[in-house]
């Protein structure tokens, strides 16, 4: 496999973007990434998106975006892996360049969710779970995560407030990210008093959806000068059962473990070598489980990293340095691309007040469903 | 790019499969392909599917199928490119193996369409067109193709009956394909008298939808002995505007031309070297346009190949040798995989009464939207 580098990145603000269509959002991010890369076209377009067919009545999204972005004729496909669609599209673009089949690839994650009523979005999000054996029983996607969180609290003895540091850290970091959806600080008191959604998950455990797009330009590594380049050092994807009740251990993200271990192996690194970790904090419980499965904490002890301050910018493993899903926002199929864009910003030293000092190796992990599809990437500056 | 071979194929009958769910259909094809390949697992699963989110309320389809097929933990993604989803998934699996990232790939195309009312399916199919600028004007997917066909007849002076050979040939060949949906012969008289759908497209111009799945097992070419292997000699994908009114020439499939020329170049062949062509006859007009764009006929003269008998098994370029979309059936996201499976059957000499004598080089072309995404593959026996 030929090594691949990231030449350019782009993103839109995540927000309620009433005045822009899904194609407008995608093109805004693409043009930013092309400008950043100093390119005008690409060998192929890989679109990460979860729900355009349901929410925007638009399948065949990839040629639509290629056309609108002025990339007419370019090969273009959409990759769907629920909330992991963005990183799965990134990995598809990566393999196209790594195979030598394409000389470059543009990856775009995009989601335009807010044109529908929220109950329709809740139904659309539930398509990430098992339609026949979970959703037909009446459980929503938040409900599934609530059951996992409740079980975790029961098994390991944590109380709800112990999860607060994940949300507080994300909001603190998002303050300095102009692309983030939420720009306000929160306290433990805010966290404990926020509205209940599905016990024990309340509003501040949960990430907000949003409209947004992020893009990345990939090229063979030899086309970028050493010293300034961001290398994709590890890339791996794994799956677990889609239904939580089919897993032998509901509190262990086996696909996170599997994909992280493979990414570590490819990159030749250990968890200790990772300078920052953009994890998939769709709900606070997912932050804990992700840290545990990737080897940053023992099982049941991910929460302690938050309580001990180890997930902040000065801690042992800074997470959600640009706000994470919690405060940057979670435009589902776009999120995985945002995460990788943010790791690139850190490795380039472009993060200002939320810069992780001397960041050289960063990791991004994107989760589709309640752990059914998990994609892990490790980037290195060299 | 490392050369890749097809080690195994599998398929289900295309039908109204009321007793089987989408996961059942997928697993049936996967188990057949694994058995044919003599393997029990795969390095990755690439799912081609267009409308599971809309029709089956199921996104995140890839881990669901991986789990159900006993491939637990395996990397798995879904690729969507409207009716070209199957071939796009095949090409993604191909690049994963060609890059050396995976040691094998299982490609599955699956669609379970008939659990919904037909007006819902018509709406779901329309998501392949431009939602904002075509569908919002009230045009259906058949309507778009009808406008193309009417214009073609006007420009080149053909009458409706001139398109009959495409449908007659497809039905004749499907008689001998046990996996085909339709098993009855038709005549020019039947063709002319069938029910009108959207003038000038009547029922026998149009392919039937259906429930079905097809699967292919891919490996690096060196792992298969020469003399018995089916090589993927050419693979290319291109796009055009999604809206027909944005094209300078509505009667020319530019993405078919572009992807076919690239596939010819990779394979080192010309149209004359192709022994059979599984083309995308969603409507009879698409057969004519595909033959023209791929260099088998001059513009406006694709219809003549049918009238002259050149598309039959003994003609210059046999098409739809197993029944095509018209009579084998068109389970939209699965179709592209069926086409490639059928080319493999021909190159292996397994087609009995519809065997193309001494077939050595076969082509498959899959179209998403009214020509927006077109993927062309050339296979060689060697």
Features:
alpha/beta, two-stranded antiparallel sheet, homodimer, globular, 11 strands
Describe the 3D structure.
Two copies of one chain form a homodimer. Chain A is of the alpha/beta class and 382 residues long. In chain A, the strands form two sheets. A nine-stranded mixed β-sheet of chain A has the order 3-2-4-7-1-8-11-10-9, sandwiched between helices. In chain A, β10 and β11 form a beta hairpin. At the A-B interface, α3, β3, α4, α5 and β8 of A face α3, β3, α4, α5 and β8 of B. β3 of chain A pairs antiparallel with β3 of chain B.
Query: How many strands appear in the DSSP assignment of chain A?
Result: 11
Task: List SSEs of chain A in N-to-C order.
Answer: EHEHHEHEHHHHEEEEHEHHHHEE
Number of helices of chain A: 13
Measured distance between first and last alpha carbons of chain A: 19 Å
Q: How would you sum up the global shape of chain A? A: globular
Give the C-alpha Rg of chain A.
19 Å
- Main interface by residue count: A-B, 66 and 66 residues
- Range of strand content of chain A: 15-25%
Q: Label the structural class of chain A.
A: alpha/beta
| Strand order in the sheet with the most strands of chain A | 3-2-4-7-1-8-11-10-9
Question: Helical proportion of chain A?
Answer: 25-40%
Question: Which assembly state applies to the chains in this document?
Answer: homodimer
Mean of pLDDT of chain A: 97
Q: Which stretches of chain A are poorly predicted, pLDDT < 50 over at least 5 residues?
A: none
Major sheet details of chain A? 9 strands, mixed
């Amino acid at each position: 496999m030929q090594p691949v580098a990231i030449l350019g990145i782009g993103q839109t603000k995540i927000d309620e973007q009433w005045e822009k269509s899904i194609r407008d959002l995608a093109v805004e991010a693409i043009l930013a990434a092309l400008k950043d890369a100093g390119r005008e076209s690409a060998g192929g377009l890989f679109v990460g998106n979860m729900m355009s067919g349901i929410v925007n009545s638009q399948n065949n999204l990839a040629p639509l975006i290629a056309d609108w972005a002025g990339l007419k004729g370019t090969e273009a496909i959409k990759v769907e892996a629920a909330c992991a669609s963005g990183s799965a599209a990134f990995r598809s673009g990566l393999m196209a360049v790594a195979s030598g089949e394409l000389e470059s690839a543009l990856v775009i994650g995009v989601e335009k969710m807010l044109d529908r009523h929220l109950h329709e979005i809740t139904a659309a999000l539930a398509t990430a779970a098992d339609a026949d054996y979970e959703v037909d029983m009446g459980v929503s996607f938040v409900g599934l995560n609530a059951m996992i969180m409740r079980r975790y609290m029961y098994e390991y003895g944590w109380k709800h407030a112990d999860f607060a540091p994940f949300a507080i850290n994300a909001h603190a970091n998002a303050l300095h990210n102009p692309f983030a959806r939420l720009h306000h600080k929160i306290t433990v008191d805010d966290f404990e008093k926020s509205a209940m959604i599905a016990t024990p998950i309340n509003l501040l455990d949960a990430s907000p959806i949003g409209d947004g797009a992020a893009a990345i330009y990939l090229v063979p590594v030899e086309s970028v000068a050493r010293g300034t380049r961001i290398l994709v050092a590890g890339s791996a994807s794994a799956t677990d059962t889609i239904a939580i009740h089919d897993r032998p251990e509901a509190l262990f993200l086996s696909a996170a473990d599997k994909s992280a271990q493979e990414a570590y192996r490819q990159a030749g690194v250990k968890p200790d070598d990772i300078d920052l970790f953009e994890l998939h904090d769709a709900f606070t419980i997912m932050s804990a489980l992700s840290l545990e499965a990737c080897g940053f904490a023992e099982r049941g002890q991910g929460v302690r990293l938050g309580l001990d301050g180890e997930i902040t910018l000065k801690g042992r493993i800074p997470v959600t340095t640009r706000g994470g899903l919690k405060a940057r926002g979670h435009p589902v199929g776009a999120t995985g691309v945002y995460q990788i864009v943010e790791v690139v910003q850190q490795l380039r030293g472009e993060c200002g007040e939320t810069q992780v000092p001397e960041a050289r190796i960063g990791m991004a992990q994107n989760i589709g469903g309640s752990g059914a599809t998990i994609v892990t990437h490790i980037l290195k500056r060299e």
